[in-house]
Design goal:
4 helices, mainly alpha, globular, about 50% helix, about 90 residues
Length: about 90
């Protein structure tokens, strides 16, 4: 079961995309949810406002799944820089 931060992200995503929260899980790909580039801009703006964070353009471009969003928001809320190249060697 997702924690409070993840639930907040999932609820914001459901609101932005106008889909039932129950249809969204951490393992959903954004593409599978029908989220296009405009939806992504709106979603990221909502997340920044809700969590009082700033998501860089580079980090935004690397988002592919709901889990990516939750992990990115979690890092930013913890004060860690969101490095889009963190998986690179």
């Amino acid at each position: 079961m997702p924690d409070e931060l993840a639930e907040n992200v999932l609820n914001i995503l459901a609101k932005v995309k106008h889909i039932p929260r129950e249809k969204i899980s951490l393992d959903c790909a954004l593409q599978d949810l029908g989220i296009d580039s405009l939806d992504t801009v709106v979603l990221l703006s909502e997340l920044e406002d809700h969590f009082k964070i700033s998501i860089s353009d580079d980090a935004a471009r690397s988002i592919r799944s709901v889990r990516d969003i939750v992990e990115g928001v979690r890092k930013l809320c913890a004060g860690a820089p969101l490095d889009s190249a963190s998986t690179a060697d």
